Amino acid sequence: LAKTTQPISMDSYEGQEVNITCSHNNIATNDYITWYQQFPSQGPRFIIQGYKTKVTNEVASLFIPADRKSSTLSLPRVSLSDTAVYYCLVGDLPPNDYKLSFGAGTTVTVRA
Amino acid sequence: DGGITQSPKYLFRKEGQNVTLSCEQNLNHDAMYWYRQDPGQGLRLIYYSQIVNDFQKGDIAEGYSVSREKKESFPLTVTSAQKNPTAFYLCASSKPAGPARGEQYFGPGTRLTVT
Lengths: 112, 115
What we know:
The complex is a heterodimer. Chain A is mostly beta strands. Helices cover 0% and strands 46% of the residues of chain A.
């Protein structure tokens, strides 16, 4: 199971870009990289997923270097409502073998 | 409106009692999962099911039981054998393999308090 390491917390201000880097040195060939967002007392919400290079959707970008040993979630122009815990996961889901591990996540606090 | 429902949102039980948490999905997903979350921590997998009538233990299955008699339903029973049952319980489901193979859809959670 690939272990992930991400910062415990990050502070930012409204309108800034937030970049959260996750290390996953022992990522396996078939593993995907997935990021979730969680607000207090709610279930996590899928943000973005990638395998290699760069992925962008309407809310975030995910940068993955060629060696795939790390990844960076980029949140452009954050607002107060982006204050949440962000989890980096590496692994796979059924019908392949379940291989995911939720760490403690990164608490992002956006200030006015 | 598709999604996952968990009921109830808050549940209180006395120590020594079994309690069953409900999880229903109308997303037509094959795989379903149960997680436990303790304050300030990430999620830990209790059980998951890839298909009806089949399920596998996760990292912390002791003291819990599940059933998967229907594709839409995956109830979790917290038994009296679970030493520290007070926690936030989350149910999730995922699509079959494809481009979004890592995407899980989570329910709103049930906060269980045992005294």
